[in-house]
Amino acid sequence: xxxxxxxxxxxxxxxxxxxxxxxxxxxxxxxxxxxxxxxxxxxxxxxxxxxxxxxxxxxxxxxxxxxxxxxxxxxxxxxxxxxxxxxxxxxxxxxxxxxxxxxxxxxxxxxxxxxxxxxxxxxxxxxxxxxxxxxxxxxxxxxxxxxxxxxxxxxxxxxxxxxxxxxxxxxxxxxxxxxxxxxxxxxxxxxxxxxxxxxxxxxxxxxxxxxxxxxxxx
Length: 218
Description:
By secondary structure, this protein is α/β, with parallel strands linked by helices. Helix content is 48%, strand content 13%.
């Protein structure tokens, strides 16, 4: 008899008990999750993480005492901290961009179908990015048109191939799609992505995408 696969341990952070209850019903053990803790505000996250083993934090943006941006920034200041996926609504563009800057690994709409939420949380928990397509284009367009956007000089240390890979990442292509478009192996793409992260001091794919749009690369 084989052991059951390890469950992905989830910490829920939302000031609405009804939302937390709904998320708990969606992120079930039979789908590979275990909700190990709940926080009703952002100022409870640090204490929860000090006593719980957590693989991913599902974070609301708008809370009464400490918002999701501040809580995410504080959490991600520790390199060993679990990744964060934020919950958003269509009118949260400004806070959403702030959450990405703070280190969130992805975002998903609060009214997304359950199966998409499951995929999103699983992706972020296993080290991937998840940017909900329903709001990604609009948020990243704001980066491109921002008066604070800087020049592309920040990318001067990248090789021409790395710049190609970053550009395709910023356009939303996955590693297999980039490999197909550039006629290289997926392993080579992963190698390029790793060097891009290292050279630009980035922690993950969403940070790279935001940086590319912020500096007018796409």
